[in-house]
């Protein structure tokens, strides 16, 4: 059961990430995102985005805990969104089907590993000017979005209760759109929960 007060996720404090760049707990203010886009260039922008995506991973672990109460191998033997969308798990040598709760665990573990790897951190902290490369974060964000999609289409009560308390989905989508991290065709869940947006893609997606 969610608390009546605003839900506090782990890692909501800036100091938890030991980062000199300012991190937001919400992304509802467009001007705030525009300021970040204007202020950070090259390697600094990569580091800013990396820290923000890492925060989403930490926060999504909380949603995963709640989904664990309603999502199981028997209830969700495949990681799906709508009946036409099946997601394949990339945590294996060859992408394959996983039950939803295993997919979610694999996705979060994989994202954490990538975002905290020494190669990524040392590269981001090199201080060398370079052309910004957000493609690795696009892959991670696209896969993280699928957790919301599965929850929305298969565990709507849990999804709505969590969103009402945290606004995490709204913040996630606002950030993803501002930095062009997720294609609109991959965004199946309506932010206002009124209608499904985006193009449905048949077949397995990795």
Automatic annotation (TrEMBL):
One Pfam family of this chain: Mob1_phocein
Q: Which SUPFAM superfamilies match?
A: Mob1/phocein (SSF101152)
Could you tell me the superkingdom of the organism this chain comes from? Eukaryota
InterPro entries according to UniProt: MOB_kinase_act_fam (IPR005301), MOB_kinase_act_sf (IPR036703)
Q: What is this protein called?
A: Mob1/phocein family protein
Taxonomic classification: Eukaryota, Rhodophyta, Bangiophyceae, Galdieriales, Galdieriaceae
């Amino acid at each position: 059961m969610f608390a009546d007060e605003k839900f506090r996720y782990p890692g909501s404090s800036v100091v938890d990430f030991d980062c000199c760049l300012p991190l937001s707990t919400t992304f509802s203010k467009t001007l705030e995102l525009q300021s970040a886009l204007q202020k950070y260039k090259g390697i600094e922008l990569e580091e800013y985005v990396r820290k923000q995506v890492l925060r989403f991973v930490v926060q999504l672990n909380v949603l995963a805990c709640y989904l664990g109460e309603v999502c199981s191998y028997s209830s969700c033997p495949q990681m799906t969104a709508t009946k036409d969308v099946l997601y394949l798990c990339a945590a294996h040598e060859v992408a394959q089907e996983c039950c939803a709760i295993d997919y979610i665990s694999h996705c979060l573990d994989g994202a954490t590993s990538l975002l905290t790897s020494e190669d990524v951190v040392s590269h981001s902290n090199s201080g060398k000017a370079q052309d910004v490369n957000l493609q690795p974060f696009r892959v991670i964000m696209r896969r993280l979005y699928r957790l919301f999609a599965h929850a929305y289409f298969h565990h709507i009560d849990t999804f709505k209760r969590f969103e009402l308390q945290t606004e995490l989905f709204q913040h996630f989508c606002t950030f993803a759109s501002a930095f062009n991290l997720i294609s609109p065709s991959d965004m199946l869940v309506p932010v206002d929960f009124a209608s499904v947006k985006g193009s449905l893609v048949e077949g397995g997606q990795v």
